[in-house]
Amino acid sequence: MAVLELPDWMALAPALILAGTALVLFLIDSIEPHSTNRTLLSGTAVAGSLSSLAVAVWFTVAGVGATGIENYGVIDIMNGQFVVDQLALYFMIIIAVVTALVTVASYDYLQDHTYQAEYYSLVVLAATGMSMMAASNSLVTIFIALELTSLPSYALVAILKDNRGSVEAGLKYFLIGALSSAIFVYGVSLVYGATGSLQLTRIATVLESGDGAVGEMGGLLGLGILMLIGGVAFKTASVPFHFWAPEAYEGAPAPISAFLSSASKAAGFVLAFRVFTTAFPLEATTGIIGVDWTLVFAILAIVTMTLGNFAAATQENVKRMLAYSSIGHAGYVLIGLAALSADGGDLVMGAAMMHLLVYGFMNTGAFLFVGLAEYWGVGRTFEDYNGLAERAPFACGAMAVFMFSLAGVPPFSGFWSKYLLYTELINAAADNTVLLVLAAALVINSALSLYYYSRLVKALWIEEPLLDRDRLAQPTGLYAAVIAAAVMTVVLLPAFGPVADAALEAAAAVVA
Amino acid sequence: MTVDVQYYVLLSMAVFCIGLFGVLTRRNALLFLMSVELMLNAANINLIAFAFYHGNLTGQLFALFTMALAAAEVAVGLGIILVLYRNFRDVDVTVPTTMRW
C-alpha cells in the first residue's frame, strides 16, 4: 500500500480510529468519573465516527483495496487474518455513518442519564467490533469481532437500569445472543475439524483440492456450515434467530434500536458475504456435503421477509412495527446470498449491499424519529402519533420520507435500491425457478409493506390528534440527526449511480 | 495409546446436546448461563481434539480465545441478571413479560 507510503496495518484505520475514540472516552471517564458533560462526551464520539467515515471514504476514493494497475490492490494484514478490500471499506462506511447519526441523536436522548461516558464508549466499542468484522478474514478474528460487537450491545440494550422494559429486552437479547454464539463457535470447531484451518482462503483451498480426510467429513462440514448460518441469522435478525429483535428494539433506548437494527445488521451481512463467498466455494462445497448452501439462504430469505412483513402489518406499537419491518428487510438482503449460484449472482449481491447502505440511512432515521417521539413523551402506538405534523412539520416530513423510502415508493432511494435488486435478480434468474419465486416474494412483500408504512404517515399527517398538545420542544441533536438522515435518503438519488457502481464492483471482486 | 478423533467428537456432541437441553428447559437464568458454558466447552473439546488430529496448533489457540470470551460473556450476563433481579425480584427468565408478541 502506498498512500503516502503508509504501512499495511494502517489500512485498518477506520476501525482503529473507532477503537482509539473508545479509549479516549474511557480516559475522560477515568479523569472525571461522574461527568455529565454531554457536549464533550457526545462530541468526542461524533468526531471519532466522522473521522472514521472520512478515512474510509478517502481510502475508497484513493483505490485502497481495489484491484487494477492504478490502485493499491487488496491488502492482507497479519498473514491474511484481516483483509482490506472494497467490500470491507464499503461496510466500514455504512457502520461509521450509522454510528455518527446515533451518537448525535443520543446527545438529547440521554439528557438526564447518569452513565453518559459508559454509554458512548460502549457504542463506539460495538462500532469498532462491527468495523473489524468487515475486514476479518479468518474464523478466529470473525468470532472475536462478533463478540466485541455483541457484548457492548447487550449492555446498551439494558442500560436504562430502572426501566423494566429495557432490562427485559437486555435479558432476552443476551439469552438468545449467548445461545447463538455458542452454536456459532461449535460450527467453527466443526469446520476446523473438517478442513484443518480457520483462515477463510485456506479453507477454500482445502475444499477445492479435496486433500486429506475432507471428503469423508462431509457430514461434519455440512453441520458446521448450518451452525455458522445460525450465527449469521442472529446478527442479521433473520429466521430462525429473529425473535429477540422485536423485544430488544422495543425495550432498548431508541438510538440503540437504530444502531442495532442498521449497523449491527450490516455487520452480520458483511460476515455472511465474506464467509460464504470466500471460504465455501459453491461447487467444491456442494460436491463434499451434497447440498447447495444457497438453497438454505433462499428458504430463509422467503420465510424471513414474509414473516417480518406480515407481523409488522398487525402491530399497534410503532417501534415494534419498525422492528418487524427490519426483519423483513433482512429477508430482502438475504436474496443477495441466495442468488450466488446463478450467473450474475455477484450483481445481485452488489444490489443487496446497495440496499443495506440506503437502509442504513432510512431505518436509522425512522428509529431516531421514534426516539424524538419518546423525548416528547407522546406515547408508543399509532394513535398516539396522530396529528403530530401540526406541531412538528419538519420532523414529520422527514419521517414520511423514511416511510415511503422503506416501502420502496419512487422517487426515494429505497425504491431505486429495491428496483436494482429486483432487476438484477430477474436477470440472474433466467430459468432458475427458485430465484423467480424469490423475485415474486420480494414484489408481494414490498406491496404489503406499503400498507403499514403509509398507515403511520396517515396518522402523522391526516388524523386528528386525540387530545390537544402543547408546543413540542425541538432538541438540536435529535433534530439534526433525523433531518440529516432524511436529506441523505433523498440526496443519494443523484449520487446513486457511482455509489451503486462501487457496491457492484466490491461484490464482483469478492465473488470472482 | 491414542483415542481416535471420532470419540472426541461424540463426547463433544453429547456435551453440546446436554447444554442445549438445559438451555431449552431451564427457567433459572443462572442455570441457563451454565448450560451455555457447556455448549462453549463442547466446542473447545472439538477444537483441541482436531488440533491434535490435524497436527497444527490453530485449534488450541482458538480454544484459549473462546475461554476468554466465554468469561467476558458471563461477566456481562451476570450484570444483566443482577439488574433483572433488582427490577423483578426473581431470576426466572419467564417472569419478565412486559412485552408480548
Radius of gyration of chain A: 22 Å
Proportion of beta-strand residues of chain A: under 5%
The helical percent of chain A reads: over 70%
**What is the H/E order of chain A?**
HHEEHHHHHHHHHHHHHHHHHH
The chain-level mean pLDDT of chain A equals 91
As residue ranges, the low-confidence spans of chain B are none
Biggest chain pair contact, residues each? A-B, 44 and 47 residues
Widest β-sheet, arrangement of strands of chain A: 1-2
Distance between the termini of chain A: 22 Å
Distance between the termini of chain B: 56 Å
Major beta sheet summary of chain A: 2 strands, antiparallel
Q: In one word, what is the shape of chain A?
A: globular
Which structural class fits the helix and strand makeup of chain B? mainly alpha
Q: DSSP strand (E) fraction of chain B?
A: under 5%
Question: What overall geometry of chain B do the principal axes of the alpha carbons give?
Answer: elongated
How does this structure look, described?
The complex is a heterodimer of chains A (512) and B (101). Chain A is mainly alpha-helical. Chain A has a domain at 292-512. Chain A is built from 20 helices and two strands. Chain A has a two-stranded antiparallel ribbon. In chain A, a hairpin with a 4-residue loop joins β1 (75-77) and β2 (82-84). The radius of gyration of chain A is 22 Å and the shape is globular. The two termini of chain A are 22 Å apart. The mean pLDDT of chain A is 91. With 101 residues, chain B is an all-alpha fold. Chain B has a single domain, classed as Helix Hairpins, CATH 1.10.287. Chain B is 77% helix and 0% strand. In chain B, α1 packs antiparallel against α2 (29-54) and α2 (29-54) packs antiparallel against α3 (58-88). The relative contact order of chain B is 0.13. Classes of the chains: A mainly alpha (512), B mainly alpha (101). Chain B: One of its GO terms (biological process) is ATP synthesis coupled electron transport. Chain B: InterPro entries: NADH_UbQ_OxRdtase_chain4L/K, NUOK/Mnh_C1-like. Chain B: Keywords: Membrane, Oxidoreductase, Transmembrane, Transmembrane helix, Transport. Chain B: It comes from Natrinema altunense. Chain B: GO terms for molecular function: oxidoreductase activity, acting on NAD(P)H. Chain A: It holds the Pfam family Proton_antipo_M.
